[in-house]
What we know:
alpha/beta, 5 domains, 10-stranded mixed beta sheet, 6-stranded mixed beta sheet, 28% strand
Amino acid sequence: xxxxxxxxxxxxxxxxxxxxxxxxxxxxxxxxxxxxxxxxxxxxxxxxxxxxxxxxxxxxxxxxxxxxxxxxxxxxxxxxxxxxxxxxxxxxxxxxxxxxxxxxxxxxxxxxxxxxxxxxxxxxxxxxxxxxxxxxxxxxxxxxxxxxxxxxxxxxxxxxxxxxxxxxxxxxxxxxxxxxxxxxxxxxxxxxxxxxxxxxxxxxxxxxxxxxxxxxxxxxxxxxxxxxxxxxxxxxxxxxxxxxxxxxxxxxxxxxxxxxxxxxxxxxxxxxxxxxxxxxxxxxxxxxxxxxxxxxxxxxxxxxxxxxxxxxxxxxxxxxxxxxxxxxxxxxxxxxxxxxxxxxxxxxxxxxxxxxxxxxxxxxxxxxxxxxxxxxxxxxxxxxxxxxxxxxxxxxxxxxxxxxxxxxxxxxxxxxxxxxxxxxxxxxxxxxxxxxxxxxxxxxxxxxxxxxxxxxxxxxxxxxxxxxxxxxxxxxxxxxxxxxxxxxxxxxxxxxxxxxxxxxxxxxxxxxxxxxxxxxxxxxxxxxxxxxxxxxxxxxxxxxxxxxxxxxxxxxxxxxxxxxxxxxxxxxxxxxxxxxxxxxxxxxxxxxxxxxxxxxxxxxxxxxxxxxxxxxxxxxxxxxxxxxxxxxxxxxxxxxxxxxxxxxxxxxxxxxxxxxxxxxxxxxxxxxxxxxxxxxxxxxxxxxxx
Length: 690
């Protein structure tokens, strides 16, 4: 049996997992930001050595990366130009004309990726129904191409008005640009994001063009290095919707790689939930740079059509750049192990969103970092064994951590020692994560108290008990390989691809003919792309419509039958919409017709859903010793019993306060919790008295 490998590049660590049958090996290496492929190759070599495998023993490598996200956040993409319909060059700057902070008189919106001087108008006009109102003036495109040449543009985005309804002008403009500038990457909105709402369509296309040369270069280098190392197996990419795709698709649409790592985490949480019979779940992924939370209902992660990148106002909704791509919906905050703690001029302690990352890293890494971070605080509180961090491959320096914490307090003129400041940092970061989860649930019309919390990522098991206390959640699951959970999720993801199109339909005037033709064409396109990654495999199809009451501004997704639609399906679509609307808003609006703006077709290999693990016979666990650890909930140091996870058999039971140590993370069992090892090896924490 051939093994499979998953690689997840994060802001601080690159996580690797190898699986062969029931056996699994994991490895963490520090990310190399200037050349991410170096960390990948280093990790692959170490992983093969750990598992006694050769490159020819590997049948598949799945890869997820934050490279596209980081390029957008740090504005380190290509010099990009934007060709658009005359009169609309400022759409990128005007946006929706909404204010994300009503009372900030000095509010500054993030600047567009493309400056005004590189936003070039071309003469043409298309109607909303796809009719040509003004033919494309090819001379204006050629003149724009000459400007691109003079200004040494590295990538081009083309977004014309209503091109989602008729892409002919965009396609011809691309041909003309390529004739004038062979080899220049060109992204067109009718392929990147063929949906209504020109602002989101234009920003998405510009973002795709902005990162395309960077991602194409990185994927070419990665593929060459992997082949040079002797791996002849397929190399797939994780995409933001929770599926896998080929390198060619990743090169053409790199914007779909945004949030690929967190998407793997949601897939991982889905499989854990299935093994434990948990239908309502909050997944909590805390790594070195950020923390992510996602809601899952009936084993399905919540999804969205629009995602904001690079929010400029402390992650405030509306302050970032919208990209319209299929994405697993989650809230992400700058609260990871590397998040930097500081004291402001009013002597208030703040944590993040900036991170020490992998280079130079937290102060305790002894790699040149001097700022106090969450990892430094966890080390000072006694939660982390400095000799066993990252499987003992990175020795932490407790004295450097305490020094950084003391300096941060002294610079802020706070009369605190290292431990007291570390307590404040831990409590603040836990509160920030709990608050983000509560806001996300409220915005989604859902509650948290009755959910099971599934925690993974290198830092999550250290903080999850306190976060759960703040949320009122009584049951926590820390699955095996929690420290590399997103990478494990890559190996559970189906090969899939989603195609979206806008076609305006009112249920009161439902005509199935044009709609069926559109859906069949979309399915054929999605199948052709998905089949490249899964040749000869049976593919499943899922259709979704995004509907709203006439005149509303936002849509709700509803399932659409997989067969051709007829007039009799309109009442079923109405019924599905009303059920979804009532769930979200608690009421219906009588006497108002329903309109559908966008349709999607997702084609994928069948998703694997594991069965429930049988409960093992219980027995008491034996501790290896004790360690003094500061209990944040109790606000004092307590004796914590020490356990090694690899030595805890299924059915083992223990009570907090305790620490369960493993190579990729450690689990803090708070004083008010009991722990048990489930049949699949998961640690299940239950709050006493719940």
